[in-house]
Write a structure and sequence with these properties.
This protein has about 325 residues and is α/β, with parallel strands linked by helices. The protein has two domains: about 25-165, Glutaredoxin, CATH 3.40.30.10; about 210-320, no CATH class. The protein contains 15 helices and five strands. The chain has helices at about 5-20, 30-40, 45-50, 55-65, 80-90, 95-100, 115-120, 120-125, 155-190, 195-205, 210-230, 240-255, 260-275, 285-295, 305-330, and strands at about 50, 70-75, 105-110, 130-135, 140-145. Strands 1-3-2-4-5 form a five-stranded mixed sheet, sandwiched between helices. Helix 10 (about 195-205) packs antiparallel against helix 11 (about 210-230), helix 11 (about 210-230) crosses helix 13 (about 260-275) and helix 12 (about 240-255) crosses helix 13. It is elongated.
Length: about 325
């Protein structure tokens, strides 16, 4: 075939594929469009099984029953021979009963009555009728049938099976990703390989943690936060120590606690330094801090002097508080 003739044939074929299925004009009278829509919704195939014609109701049923939604997109504003054959021969066949048993059925009619509803066909990747799509209970598209040719009940079951297979693969993949994030966080915190921002991001996406795992990971992230607070000050300057201690008091109010040895030293030690400099120290918090330090470092010779000095201060501060309380009583 000459090149020009071949090009012309291709052009005509493409034009034909986009041409209307009939040369007749669609009506524009609202009453006639309403009548045609009502006639479509009265077709016998919709009475053979429980078909929903309200998408919200179909989604609620799917959520309740744990099923997928099989959508049959048809039209009423003009006759569609392929849609009619599907409805009379496939959706009305005894074989379709197996499909109806395993899915929630929803019939969507492009009617030219509701412009917003008419847009759904394009949203569901359809370009003609009939179009079939599988949705989950949230309305997410999980599968589409591309061809507008005649279909069979077996093809619908295969479409539903493919959608369920995709969901299972997606669940497995997401579970594997969650496990990988948790393992990365646990290993990274244990090795000291993560910065505070990365650790927080990973922790925020961790799921299926036990209470003990969650507590330990949170405490290890607190260690990073303690380190970040100390990195921004001169830890050898008394004023800077008091400033850091104030940050640790605020962290304590949020329920944060240190995990590793050095973090325990810096956190509780900083809180004690802050309380010693406070005009009205929180003696209960000071006792908690001293107890935590004694539990971790009480047996170490290098900390005896520090702990003895903190005990002496606490005794004196408690006595002063009792004296002030007694004076107020009188």
């Amino acid at each position: 075939m000459p090149r020009l003739a071949a090009s012309r044939t291709l052009a005509l074929t493409l034009l034909a594929s986009f041409a209307p299925t009939t040369t007749a004009q669609a009506p524009t009278d609202p009453a006639e469009l309403q009548r045609r829509a009502a006639d479509k919704l009265a077709q016998p195939f919709l009475r053979l099984h429980e078909w929903h014609t309200d998408l919200g109701a179909a989604q609620r049923t799917a959520a309740r029953d744990g099923k997928l939604i099989l959508v049959h997109c048809t039209r009423s504003f003009m006759p569609c021979g392929t849609s009619i054959r599907c409805e009379q021969q496939v959706l009305s066949s005894p074989e379709f009963a197996a499909v109806a048993a395993e899915a929630v059925l929803y019939c969507h009619v492009t009617s030219h009555v509701d412009a917003t509803a008419d847009q759904r066909l394009a949203e569901w990747r359809g370009s003609g009728w009939p179009h079939h799509v599988v949705l989950d209970a949230t309305g997410r598209v999980l599968g589409t049938h591309e061809s507008h040719r005649d279909k069979s009940a077996a093809e619908f079951r295969a479409l539903l099976a493919a959608a369920r297979s995709f969901l299972q693969v997606e669940r497995d993949t997401l579970a594997a990703e969650r496990r990988a994030r948790r393992e990365r966080l646990q290993a990274g915190l244990q090795a000291g390989a993560l910065d505070l921002t990365t650790a927080r991001e990973l922790f925020a996406t961790c799921e299926a943690l036990t209470a003990a795992e969650s507590r330990e990971l949170a405490d290890r992230i607190t260690d990073l936060e303690i380190g970040a607070a100390l990195a921004s000050v001169d830890r050898f300057a008394p004023a800077a120590q008091i400033e850091a201690g104030g940050r640790f008091v605020a962290m304590h109010r949020l329920g944060k606690r240190p995990f590793a040895r050095n973090a325990v030293r810096d956190f509780w030690g900083g809180i004690l330094v802050f309380q010693e400099q406070a005009a009205t120290p929180n003696l209960e918090l000071a006792k908690e801090a001293l107890g935590a330090l004694e539990q971790r470092f009480g047996g170490e010779r290098g900390y005896r002097g520090f702990l003895d000095a903190r005990r002496e201060w606490l005794v004196q501060a408690s006595a002063a508080a009792d004296a002030a309380k007694g004076a107020r009583t009188f």
